[in-house]
Design brief:
- The complex is a heterodimer of chains A (about 110) and B (about 110).
- Chain A has strands at about 5, 10-15, 20-25, 30-40, 40-50, 55, 65, 75-80, 85-95, 105, 110-114.
- Chain A is mainly beta and about 110 residues long.
- In chain A, the strands form two sheets. In chain A, strands 2, 4, 5, 6, 9, 10 and 11 form a seven-stranded mixed beta sheet that branches. Chain A has a four-stranded antiparallel beta sheet with strand order 1-3-8-7, with no helix packed on it.
- The N and C termini of chain A lie far apart (about 30 Å).
- With about 110 residues, chain B is mostly beta strands.
- Helices cover about 0% and strands about 55% of the residues of chain B.
- In chain B, the strands form two sheets. In chain B, strands 2, 4, 5, 9, 10 and 11 form a six-stranded mixed beta sheet that branches. A five-stranded antiparallel beta sheet of chain B has the order 1-3-8-7-6, with no helix packed on it.
Chain lengths: ~110, ~110
């Protein structure tokens, strides 16, 4: 793999079910992020991690949790999915120790909660 | 939080035309990036430009941080330039986290 890999590509999920979206990077970037993209609202930050072992809440964290056990992986979990969580989810990473903080994005996961 | 406004929201061009996209932001920033989202949904980083001017082929960007705006120039547009262009900014207190604008939808017709 090169860059960021997200899985699954798409998913239809029954309301109330638990779901984990996977994100793996191979660039050794220290910072990782989860954004959701909804029509007309741009991208909004859900959770972030500045380095392995730390996480923080973004703009829209309710109903989501994350973990960062190592540098490469940053899974996003929906504990009990609701229809308002229907969205396209993007994982991103950046190297804040580099000369710039340019983001690299994964290809996204399209989630439909019914 | 910081507000990011992009204009115009939609833009339709004929192939070969030039265009300017604008990004206004409400507070001082130390991080500003432009992204292109292609029609298949892939987000590509175009520029990291918290200040100054950069050029990459037919694209260039200028950020005037003191006046809180950035401009993205697309010259000799091609149909492959179609998609949504996002501006995203971050403040020093936000670390490397970015706040995105709602984007400019660009359509380039042959």
């Amino acid at each position: 793999i090169a860059g960021i890999t997200q899985a699954p590509t798409s998913q239809i999920l029954a309301a109330g079910r638990r779901m984990t979206l996977r994100c793996t990077q191979d660039m050794r970037h220290n910072a990782m992020y989860w954004y959701r993209q909804d029509l007309g609202l741009g991208l909004r930050l859900i959770h972030y991690s500045n380095t392995a072992g730390t996480t923080g809440k973004g703009e829209v964290p309710d109903g989501y949790s994350v973990s960062r056990a190592n540098t490469d992986d940053f899974p996003l979990t929906l504990a009990s999915a609701v229809p308002s969580q229907t969205s396209v989810y993007f994982c991103a990473s950046s190297d804040s120790g580099a000369s710039h903080y340019g983001y690299t994005f994964g290809s996204g996961t399209r989630l439909t909660v019914v | 939080g910081i507000q990011v406004e992009q204009s115009p929201p939609d833009l339709i061009l004929q192939e070969g035309a030039n265009s300017t996209l604008r990004c206004n932001f409400s507070d001082s920033v130390n991080n500003l990036q432009w992204f292109h989202q292609n029609p298949w949904g892939q987000l590509i980083n175009l520029f990291y430009i918290p200040s100054g001017t950069k050029q990459n082929g037919r694209l260039s960007a200028t950020t005037v941080a003191t006046e809180r705006y950035s401009l993205l120039y697309i010259s000799s547009s091609q149909t492959t330039d179609s998609g949504v262009y996002f501006c995203a900014v971050g403040r020093e207190t936000s670390g490397s986290r970015l706040t995105f604008g709602e984007g400019t939808q660009l359509t380039v017709n042959p």
